[in-house]
């Protein structure tokens, strides 16, 4: 499973976008992080980087 963003917990800081080594995360039109499942390698970098703990890998 690719990384999952909890939209209610995301604070739109963009840290995950900056830290993702695969460039698999972008901000959507509402400035909420969105994961491109085809690019996500489940490395966990975004999970560790997220200050609001809004990202998980299930």
Describe what you observe in this structure:
- It is globular and about 25 Å long.
- The chain has 58 residues and is an alpha+beta fold.
- 22% of the residues are buried.
- It has 2 helices and 4 strands; from the N terminus they run E-H-E-E-H-E.
- The chain has a single domain, classed as Alpha-Beta Plaits (2-Layer Sandwich).
- The protein starts with a strand and ends with a strand.
- A hairpin with a 5-residue loop joins strand 2 and strand 3.
- The strands form 2 sheets. The chain has a two-stranded antiparallel ribbon with strand order 1-4.
* Level-1 CATH class name: Alpha Beta
Structural class: alpha+beta
Q: Supply the number of helical segments.
A: 2
From the structure provided, what is the oligomeric state, counting identical versus distinct chains?
single chain
User: Strand arrangement, largest sheet?
Assistant: 1-4
The Cα radius of gyration reads 10 Å
Provide mean pLDDT, rounded. 97
Instruction: Please summarize the sheet with the most strands.
Output: 2 strands, antiparallel
The CATH architecture classification is 2-Layer Sandwich
Tell me the fraction of residues in β-strands, as a range: 15-25%
Q: Name the poorly predicted regions.
A: none
Shape, principal axes of CA atoms:
globular
CATH topology: Alpha-Beta Plaits
């Amino acid at each position: 499973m690719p990384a999952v963003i909890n939209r209610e917990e995301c604070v739109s800081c963009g840290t995950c976008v900056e830290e993702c080594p695969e460039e698999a995360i972008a901000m959507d039109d509402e400035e909420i992080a969105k994961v491109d499942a085809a690019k996500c390698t489940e490395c966990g970098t975004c999970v560790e980087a997220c200050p609001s703990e809004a990202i998980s890998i299930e």
